Amino acid sequence: MKSPRGILLVALGAALWGTDTLLRRPLTTVLDSSRIVLYEHLTLTIILLPFCWRGRREWKSLTPLQWAAVLGTSWGGSALGTVCFTEAVKIGNPTTAVLLQKIQPVFAALLARALLGESLGRRFWMWLMLALAAGWLISFGWALPAAAPVNASAALFATAAAALWGGSTVLGRFLLKAVSFTTLTALRIVLAVPLLLGLAAGDATAVLNARQVSSVLAMALVPGLLALLIYYRGLRETLASRATIAELSFPATATLLNFAFLGARLAPVQAAGFALLWVVIVLLGRDRTAGDVVYSPRKELSDA
């Protein structure tokens, strides 16, 4: 099932992720990446545990394949993906880390076709190229990017995050056939905590001041919980291959916020790029050339 509303909700949820870097970057000066992500998930776990318990009838009936998908989106997307992104923001240019998320649609589209059997449609690659072009205009305008050396480690971590989040989009779309978006959100966060506890076991601890605690809370509640709930609500009605293009509103919004935060002037061509991206997202939601899922791992398992 596809709907224009679904893809707009995906884009809105992803746009809220764009506020994340401004909150996350200052925390990297006092905390290790895995501990930042752990604190974020512990905060959300307190809120989401009741929803996890309320949805127990849904997750108790999951098949082994579906549980593997849950762990993939929780451990891969929520835990490791966020740790990789945080590390990229910590050791490199945060804008570069955000811009590398533009390659996420390629990972997700190929996985959606391979794992879910989604028909990409005749115009999918046209929409993807237009969205990437809009992202380029937002980031660089008409000019080529600066020839400054790129931190290879930061780029590697950011690329890993893009791959893990792209895979998480596909797995989430698969799971939303079996569980509600609130239950999936709760499972994604809560099940990531044990892995994060292990990753953060050797990290140095630090006493946070009131402002840093507020940043952790804001990061968990806005680009974390609120964005994820809106995102999964929209993903329920959106093909994963299309949703991942809408997710480009994340790096676009983050880039604009970085400009605003740094006090840099926003060129008209960059504002035009942002407008173009949202036009693509709206038109993509109305495009009917992509068919429904032609292969369902869940159906195959139930028929076995």
For the structure shown, list the relevant keywords.
304 residues; disordered C terminus; mainly alpha
Describe this structure in words.
By secondary structure, the chain is mainly α. It has 16 helices and no strands. α1 (4-17) packs antiparallel against α12, α3 (33-54) packs antiparallel against α5 (64-91) and α5 (64-91) crosses α11 (192-199). The longest helix has 28 residues, at 64-91. The protein starts with a helix and ends with a helix.
What is the first-to-last residue Cα distance?
24 Å
What is the arithmetic mean of pLDDT?
Answer: 79
What's the order of the H and E elements?
A: HHHHHHHHHHHHHHHH
Count the E strands: 0
Please tally the helical runs, counting DSSP H or I stretches of 4 or more residues: 16
Radius of gyration: 19 Å
Tell me which oligomeric state these chains represent: single chain
The computed structural class is mainly alpha
Helical residue percent? over 70%
| Beta-strand residue percentage | under 5%
